[in-house]
User: What shape does this take?
Amino acid sequence: MTATLAPPSAPVTPAPRKARRRTKTGKAGPVTYSLLALFALVSVFPLYWTVVAGSHTNAEIAATPPPFLPNATLFENIDAALEQAPLGLAILNSVIVSGAITVGTVLFCTLAGFAFAKLRFRGNGLLLSLVVGTMMVPTQLAVIPLFMMIAELQWVDQLQAVVLPTLVSAFGVFFMRQYLVSALPDELLEAGRVDGASTHRIFFSIVLPVARPAMAVLAMLTFLTAWNEFFWPIIALTAANPTVQVAIANLGSGYVPQRAVIMAGTLLGTLPVLVVFGVLGKQIVGGIMAGAVKG
Amino acid sequence: MASISFAGATRVYDRAHAPAVDRLDLDVADGEFLVLVGPSGCGKSTSLRMLAGLEEVDEGAIRIGDRDVTDLPPKDRDIAMVFQNYALYPHMTVAENMGFALRLAKVSKAEITRRVTEAATVLDLAAHLDRRPKALSGGQRQRVAMGRAIVRSPQVFLMDEPLSNLDAKLRVQTRTQIAALQRRLGTTTVYVTHDQVEAMTMGDRVAVLRDGVLQQCAPPGELYDRPANAFVAGFIGSPAMNLVTGDAVDGGVRVGTTVLPVPRAQLDRAAGGTGRATVGFRPESLVVGAAGDGLPVAVTLVEQLGSDAYVHGTCGDDAVVLRTASREAPAVGDTVWVAPRADALHVFDPTTGTRVA
Assistant: This one.
């Protein structure tokens, strides 16, 4: 507002604004740090509580005040959890399932996203709307026909029953398309074509490296979703050959649920996710940094 | 090395509008440096992209050497292109960027290294071969883009405003380097620019386009001395040629109270049925004379360039620019009387703009 009212000797006005902005973005004050710390605590607390609750009995957890420190009972509870459900097998299954889904989704979504973003073909816009439109169809609607197909193929209680239906996602296609539309200049593809590259070669040599930051984000989101997926796996799989979420659902089930054992099992099931975040989180930060420097 | 020929090449983006490139007929000789120039939207980049195979040819044909390349994909045309924003692969080092096309062509590793090193030496990039484009300055990136074209030893170089992202000083420097490099390599080159100084200084011949139509293709000197129409006359030269339109009278064209002498035959062809003619004269061909002699120009602005000065003014309704020696420049508000040298007059048909003499 003041800028529009200012006299024509405009150069005076932007200067102080610029200076103010620099101090704002350059250094975070105590308020920022306090807020960040609070946010971090709130985020980490559930994980910590899992450890604490996993190392006490039902009665101890229910006491007032509740315990605030973990102890060695945790390992007994983990042993109990491992006895009650095939957690080792479940984790292995979940790693296979989530890994396969992640690799498939990232690859196929990047391919499709690239095609929608940069290739000229008839019906591009219509097809994209159809793909995006499928996001509005609830999963529950597809469960019965899907199960019938799986049963027909005799895949019930087999991992491919969980992997195959989720190898590509509409969200992923849309996400990759949006990223590539802005991050991948047309000239880069044209340079590749003039240099003699086929479309496949352009995809693997030029598009993939450019798409890497977005692929890392999509990979992490997909892995998390696949790891936490419960509804379809519990229908398609049995307690004998479960994924982690299905196995945990079967934990500590008795007349009184054994919360400590459930928590210990949950902790085991969460560890691989933490590892994946540790590996891919760096990639994501790297991607953000690269963009910042370039812009 | 090869010649290039556009034969009636046409590109239509949208049936509802005029073609982006309209029946372009243009021949480029083997080893020639041809510059395509024109205002933005004139179809110069589209023409280049049609030659590259990045844009479809809706009608007509394009030949490189003896081959009809109209329907060939870019990779089969044996061309190399330098893009305006360089289009370097961000994840590859300078050496990888330059060698990418050779790698795709399955050239041996030793040969790639040899050719990349050679090009890097020529372009003064040898010290940067292991760097990524991000770590290079604008001028270095531009040279990498050049290097990527050179290492392939293609039949044709295509350059799409390769200097427009450089600062003024570097642009002048690089301009001469590219021209020298092209003469040394002798590779047929088509170069697109909107900068007429680049066009005039670099090209063996310059093709001026407007609204998708070729206006004139000639060596720079001829373009300047004998523009084919009023558009070329106004586009080439800085400041632009003065163009004034007046009534055809006995002995010439009357502008205000003065009659600019134009031979009878030319006058008849220019005036046609309208009885009017457009006369053009360059700022440097105006001679300041005594008061009352020639065209009166009311001075509105004086641009001092050091040795010369450009004097902007009005003569009746027409804007007129003249060049004088810096110390002889009049002051703003003065009226100077000028007359163009008789041999430096250009006469155009006022309706079509076509040159008649």
Remarks:
- Chain A touches chain B at residues 185, 187-188, 190-198, 201, 205-206, 209-210, 293-294 (CB under 8 Å).
- The CA atoms of residues 106 and 215 of chain A lie 6 Å apart.
- Confidence is low (pLDDT under 50) at residues 1-22, 291-295 of chain A.
